[in-house]
Amino acid sequence: MSDRCVVILGIYPPLLKPHVRAGGRAPVNMDTFDALACPLDGEPLSQSGTCWRCPAGHSFDVARQGYLHLLPVQKKRSLDPGDSKDMVAARRRFLNAGFYQPVAEAVNKAVTTDAGDAKPLACLDAGCGEGYYLRQLAASNMDRSLALVGVDISKWAILAAAKQDKRPRWLVGSNANLPVLSGTLDCVLCLFGFPVYSEFARALKPGGMVIQADAGPDHLRELREIIYPSIKPEKPPMAEVPDGFSDLGTETVRYSLTLENQAAIADLLAMTPHFYRAPAEGRVRAETLETLTVTVEVKLRRWVRDSAVTTTTPR
Description:
The protein is globular and about 55 Å long. The longest helix is centred in the middle third of the chain and has 14 residues, at 101-114. The strands form 2 sheets. Strands 1, 2, 6, 7, 8, 9, 10, 11, 12 and 13 form a 10-stranded mixed β-sheet that branches. It has helices spanning 85-96, 101-114, 132-140, 155-164, 197-203, 221-227, 262-270, 274-277, 280-287, and strands at 3-12, 30-31, 46-48, 51-53, 59-61, 68-69, 121-126, 146-152, 169-172, 185-191, 204-215, 245-259, 292-305. Helices cover 25% and strands 28% of the residues. The chain is built from 9 helices and 13 strands. By secondary structure, the chain is an alpha/beta fold.
């Protein structure tokens, strides 16, 4: 396993390149991902007009905004799971401002370097949020055919994603029960999310890869020092390789980020779990800040699915 560090100098956000301008869309070669599975029985879904149906007769309507809801009510843990509408809006503003563009560029490079030569390249973002990283991937692969699908348990996140770009397939669904057929994906992204490796292995083709992004020990340390009485030691990263995968290495993306107004600081806090974990007095201290310089440190790990893996998924 290799471990390398990418240190990015300078203050972010930089001026965005024309083909990755926030909210914009590049003229990329995009295929439609249609290998969908019924979330109730795992059978293939076929489309008829604005409805998708499996052989057993389970049917799912396409929303007016273009996304598909494949999270059955009996598999929800709450009435409105996932990120709230306000959290999604904060993340959309923050990411579209380009603050995490270096992270997106590292993800894009990992996909283009290690995901093989499949045409189209079928890539699923598990826990896609409002779709920023898939849009950035599309913008960076203007000469390659892509079939992109984003899955998130939050209907507000998928709604925001569908409003910004209708070309990927946007699905309300769960990482624990991805609504795609087995062996149909070349790449799975799990960026600051909740990986379910057995399900990723089922959905990936042999030789397909997982790209996983997690916060490093110093990620947003300066903000955490303000909102918490003391900082707890970070949990060590997972050392063992997930069953059914081989390790392709780890990369660290680290840079200094300066937020120059209170609105950006508020959005950063609101889009993270720290907004709910921090005590009230800590959030009040953050609200008084006019500028803030924080460290961004992200661990980017890559796994490749072994060819001999046999997987099944309970429904």
